[in-house]
Amino acid sequence: MRDYDSSSPLSILAYSRDLLGNSLAQILPIIDNSIDIDELNKAGKGGLAQMVEKYYFGYEPNSDPRPDFIEAGVELKVSALKKNHKNELAIKERLVCDMIDYCALVEEDFENSRFFKKSMLMLIMFYLHVSGCPKKDLQFIYSILWLIKDKDFLIIKEDFRIIQDKVRRGLAHELSEGDTMYLGACRKGQKGDSLRRQPNSEIRAKARAFSLKASYMRTVLDYVKKSGKNVSSNITEEEMPGIELVTKQELMNNSFEDILRKRFEPFIGKDYKQISSELGVNIKSEDKSKYANIVKQILLKGLKNENDADEIKKSGIKIKTIRLQKNGSVKEHMSFERINYQEIFETDNWIDSRWYEIITTRYMFIVFREVDDEESDNESKYILDKMFFWTMPPSDYGIAEEYWNNIRKNVLADTLLNSKDGKHANTFWTLKDHKFFHVRPKARNSADVTYSPVSNMAVPKKAYWFDNRYLRKELMNAYGDDWNKLFKTQD
Questions:
Q1: Which residue range(s) make up the domain with 249?
Q2: Percent helix, percent strand, percent coil in the chain, to nearest 5
Q3: What is the mean pLDDT of residues 417-429?
């Protein structure tokens, strides 16, 4: 018996509780013995979300622009979890909300948009993904009634505007998840699918959907875990205040990115010593992280780790400092996280990979440029020269995919050892290949190893890297005409 009030969000949430700790195959015979469980996984039965809608909640899946539970204003979503390397439950992927109709989007305003109507209040049911497991046997773990409100609402509204503006300018084919903070325009469909018509351009665009980014969904999952309950709601329970880079009042008048840009403006042209003096903080010259540390203090005085800030956690924005030498070359290559070979082994499509999430992330680049200093005490002088937000241009996705395919080829072939190590030697891209990206070690020492998902052989830990020549190319684009003025004798 399906005993819930379809006009009450809290009643719908309470009813979802019985599915937790169970699969559809386990719970459906209890609530409706007329359902043939063996029929659930046959062709035409739809995805897991449709099965939950039809068989657990008892309504027919549809394409209605209104929420699934119309009277309650609640949209039902299911979201996959996975076990990470620590055997903890983690978000598997972004949460897809609704397909984007490019032609309709340009005529909408946010508060009356299809996305707004369907996605402001969602019942999100988390289940544990197990590769090869029939959908009817997947176990549900958590259920949360999630309202997009307060600062999240304002940031997502701005994300919607950015996506809409790009489509209005006939640039739907250039959309990237890195354009925005919490709400992304993710790719949908497979290679070979027909392209979509867009307004104000003859160029056809790939199908995309509004989605809440994986980084945002991680904070939703963290909220559930911290509640200590498997059923929770951010309507009835207040979120614990965290570290905030910006206030709700600030966001009502300016975008998040504009607010941060203004914080850096007073310090342009100054070195870390001058900035630390003005901020009243102590940054030592021997500190290897002095440039990163001064950036944290500009963002928010007293900030120890930028990843502790709510907006950074939810958006996944990566903050990177770049040192630009007097000759126009970038001093260092840029490192990212270690490569998870198991994740690559289990991922067939690079769009679902961690690497794809990295390259479609929003970045905040802070450039310190080397200048002449007659009073130098054997320390090169770098001034804060530029702060800008960046995402990888779609024109570079092709080589990024080649890079990932090369790594995956080595994972599948079990060739993960260093080049001198015989038949298991890797063919990763290196600095000598002169490409945009390369693979390099990133470990504490030679004893700090990981293991091959194919043979369980101990292999060196390595990481994703951007080549400094690639960074230089992107800096030239960001500086525009100013680049030649600064480095006119070098190019």
A1: 242-315
A2: 40, 20, 40
A3: 86
